[in-house]
Amino acid sequence: MKRLTLRKRADWQAQVERLGFAFHTIDGELYWDEGAAYSFSLKQIEEDIEAPTGEIEQMCFAFVARAVADDAILTKLAIPPAHWDLIAESWARGDRNLYGRLDLAYDGAGPAKLLEHNADTPTALFEAAVVQWDWLEQAMDQTLISPGRDQFNSLHERLIAACRNLWPALPAQMHFAAMADSVEDRGTVEYLEDCARQAGLVTRFVPIEDIGLLTDGRFADRDGRPISHLFKLYPWEWMFRERYGPNLRASGCRFVEPPWKALLSNKGLLAYLWEMEPGHPNLLPSFFEGDAAAASLGPRYIRKPLYSREGANVSIVENGKARGDAAGPYGAEGFVVQEAARIPDFGGRYPVLGSWLVASEPCGLGIREDATTITRDTSRFTPHVIEP
Predict the structure, then answer these.
(1) Given this model, what pLDDT does residue 102 score?
(2) Which of 161, 190, 200, 313 is the most buried (most CB within 10 A)?
């Protein structure tokens, strides 16, 4: 694993905008950064990233099967009791999931270590699936990198196939929802809508703020159209608190990601996986805060709220003092503590690998890097290559 310093395409902004990538720069700060790329061998990809990703996903399934039958686990995860049946029925029904992303710490030697599972609302998808592949082809054509390089990336084709297989029969229409004022979220949803349309689905976007209820309890968009199938880039724990939260189960709506994904997007998953597979080479020792076993982590560890996203309210604790806590709304629900992983330092840039799954099959890699070891929503996306 190497970090390559590269020359950017002269017209890189026009090229990414040609693809519809509108959020390459966010609030004036560079987000897409093709001035660098990470290089891997095929063995590193296949053995250290792809294979462990698939194994961890199977461990996650085992956890869900255990959790839906155990009220104590659901309580520990701060899942509201009013929604336990919604989650259990979704799992028992076999509701299919579309995609997810495991964030891994990896230094090229391995083993990769699971930092967290972005199972419910993962972003950075379009740039991983489309933008970095387009960059790869052009970079080789323009001799910015040597020819013959590849990428761990079949995301686009897998997404289209998975959308086609989500339901036994395609619905008349599938709604896609996100917060209207989030450029990144809207871009992710527009990309997934495009994949769904290529799979033969009829789609319609609805701002999450505009979802309402019909008199018969069904969800509806702003024009009063019933919502029978909904992809929502909106966390389940937020859905539970919405005004229509009490109607989620009775609405008859089928969701992507399905309700059982609320168990995997919860950082409590990390503690339960370690309990189920202590010493697993791809897991970090993790515990609920206050657990006596957490003392085994020593004086330095990572503290994460159960619901945290994009590094919000995550802190590094050293000798009882916390640092690096990014502002956010999380923490009241509880915390897990996790052994501090070794994030490699490439000249002051710290990469975290996002190993993508579509329909629970590993099929892609995206890398976010930052000047700190905590990946945030401001961290840059950097492409990758596989050496011939």
Answers:
(1) 98
(2) 313
